[in-house]
Design brief:
The chain is of the alpha+beta class. The protein has helices at residues 20-30, 49-61, 79-86, 106-110, 118-126, 129-142; strands at 5-11, 31-42, 93-103, 150-161. Strand 1 (5-11), helix 1 and strand 2 form a beta-alpha-beta unit.
Length: 162
């Protein structure tokens, strides 16, 4: 049905869909006039300390990972806004979101990585126990072997339209 929702959100998924233009048009189609269509995605580059740290540590174990992802779509300022405009959305606005994650200790950081989604999840699922153990120690070392709470930051691009 058309025009049935007040909002449609695509949070941290656009690089992983096969046809983002189609997704944006569908989101527009199902949202009522005056409703909100919004998305966000982590920005490329040194914007997400947790993932940067993970891939830097992994590349010490597997040097070929230094070129692992190249540039994923929808991770640069302006890309989601352009997608929204192509879909016919109006009043398109873009903002940066700054986030902080506090970890009790290293295990609080490490445990979610074992069942993560996206590229980290795929890498962890493919790693044997020996590689995961080496990666764990490489991450711990990059964090300075934390024995107390610590914080990592991230930056995302958020876009909304109507």
């Amino acid at each position: 049905n058309d025009d049935v929702f007040d909002a449609a959100l695509a949070q941290l998924v656009l690089p992983f869909v096969s046809d983002a233009d189609r997704v944006a048009r569908e989101m527009r189609r199902v949202v009522r006039e005056g409703g909100v269509v919004a998305a966000c995605m982590w920005l490329d580059g040194a914007s997400m300390q947790m993932t940067d740290l993970f891939w830097e540590a992994a590349s010490t174990i597997e040097p070929a990972l230094r070129d692992r992802e190249g540039s994923m779509p929808y991770r640069k300022q302006g890309e989601i806004a352009a997608l929204w405009k192509r879909a016919g959305l109006l009043n398109v606005q873009e903002a940066s979101l700054e986030v902080r994650a506090t970890y009790r200790d290293f295990d609080d950081f490490w445990e979610p990585l074992l069942t993560a989604a996206g590229p980290i999840g795929a890498y962890m699922a493919s790693a044997d126990d020996e590689r995961r153990a080496a990666l764990r120690e490489a991450c711990r070392g990059r964090l300075g072997n934390p024995q107390q709470p610590f914080e990592l930051t991230g930056r995302a691009c958020a876009v909304c339209g109507s």
